[in-house]
């Protein structure tokens, strides 16, 4: 696994090598990119392994550059100066082309060709910074991008104009065209996907839906063929107001049944687990010792310490990893039935040994968490 920090450090982790301390595992970085004149100068914005070979990976940074590193030596083999902050990048997992799409402060999607080592061309259309890009896992020439202007645009890089149209949150029907999937239809060139910047765009595994996140604190699901808003509603608990890319994480298709897709959302100090299509909240994952009531400081002011900044799924396994603004990376794994039963026995023993005052305190803390969820304001009981 790769991780990058605001200090420009890039670390490589061996997930098979952990210190087991009983109930918890402690991972230590196996190697780190050495500080040098060729390394990134400012904070890392995005890291990704080369989709066809883990012996290379890509990194982007606030220093305006996109770099290719060799995993074995952790040295950069190529660097591209894009002359503006690079918020995220994407390389198609299925394409024969080697084009890296870059979301930058410039109001155009930049395409970098790894074969020639040059910036191939730009896709113009956004009216502000581009914050997130994602290639279709089904069609190698189709790209989606989200921008600070609130739009999500679809592109076909084979076309001279490129732009296929935009997603419109007011449209729940979509553009059906001649075959019901948009063939021969006139593309939509107006409309907004979110009321506010769009800083998260991802495709489902099969490429039939797109999931977007925006500063209007909404997550929307779209039919990729028609562009229709699927009208999935995830409630008022979504928090998203940072300019950095914030990607919802979809559980791998081989772990969920058809129509039961699951989405994880990095929601400040907790990870929310939703049913993707009906928006039902399935679970809230919180780090030990972190209460929801701590997510805000004074009334109306958010405390970003320990904010969840990124999520990643371990390929081929049932493990979720979350990065936090306090510099910690946490691993989440399903508990076995035996572990659940053991924890239940421990809690029962603790409750039996509680004094009346300790029991009251526990109930007050539980009530405070519930009240926090309802009012979204910090509450103090005395």
Offer a few descriptive terms.
382 residues, mainly beta, four-stranded antiparallel beta sheet, disordered C terminus
Give the topology.
Blueprint: E1 2-4, E2 10-20, E3 25-32, E4 44-49, E5 56-61, E6 65-70, E7 75-81, E8 86-91, E9 99-104, E10 108-113, E11 118-124, E12 130-135, E13 142-147, E14 152-156, E15 163-166, E16 198-203, E17 209-214, E18 218-223, E19 249-250, E20 262-267, E21 270-275, E22 281-286, E23 308-313, E24 320-324, E25 329-332, H1 337-352, H2 356-375
Antiparallel strand pairs: 1-2, 2-3, 4-5, 5-6, 6-7, 8-9, 9-10, 10-11, 12-13, 13-14, 14-15, 16-17, 17-18, 19-20, 20-21, 21-22, 23-24, 24-25
Structure notes:
The chain is mainly β and 382 residues long. It is built from two helices and 25 strands. The protein has helices spanning 337-352, 356-375; strands at residues 2-4, 10-20, 25-32, 44-49, 56-61, 65-70, 75-81, 86-91, 99-104, 108-113, 118-124, 130-135, 142-147, 152-156, 163-166, 198-203, 209-214, 218-223, 249-250, 262-267, 270-275, 281-286, 308-313, 320-324, 329-332. It has a four-stranded antiparallel beta sheet with strand order 4-5-6-7, with no helix packed on it. A four-stranded antiparallel beta sheet has the order 8-9-10-11, with no helix packed on it. A four-stranded antiparallel beta sheet has the order 12-13-14-15, with no helix packed on it. Strand 17 (209-214) and strand 18 (218-223) form a beta hairpin.
